[in-house]
Amino acid sequence: MSTHLDAEENISAPPMKCDPMSFHELVDCLESQSTPPTLEQLNIWLANARISREDLRAYTGFKEGNYWRHRVFRNDSVEMLVLCWRPGHKTPIHDHNGSHGSVRVHEGVLWETIFVFDEDKGLSYRQGRECPVGEVTGADVPDIHQLGNPEISGQDLITIHIYAPPLGVLNTYKVGSAVIDLYTPNDFPA
Ligand SMILES: [Fe+2]
Q: What is the CA radius of gyration of the chain?
């Protein structure tokens, strides 16, 4: 039996939790959320969605110096972003300050580094790993991490992010320090 959902025939029926969605069906699905979806649900949606480069064309653009965040959608429950990274671009070390998030690698190689925080010792490295195209990685509420496109990758990186609830002010950290700073991502195009 096919699990394909025909949008016209099922106009009043929301997609089943695990049914693959097109990019536009995924955005519609997110727009219909009135409470923040779980991290598990975000991971399932992103892992199963069919997303082409053409779908992301309006959200694809790079700049020098820092990665570029392109917002696809945001309501009170959830938001979706496309991030475009040149080699060497990376986030600050941060947590999501109460939000959870799921990331899918669309093009290139994502490097994720995980840290642990101790009030006495401060922040320390825990592990790093490479995420290839198609991989979906989730960050739960207490996770502290850094994402980036390695300088030596030799290629651009495009990633798709869903956060629930939407990101606000993030906590940022430095290795070896117990100081926690605040950071508001604010580099959207006009
Ligand atoms: Fe993050």
A: 17
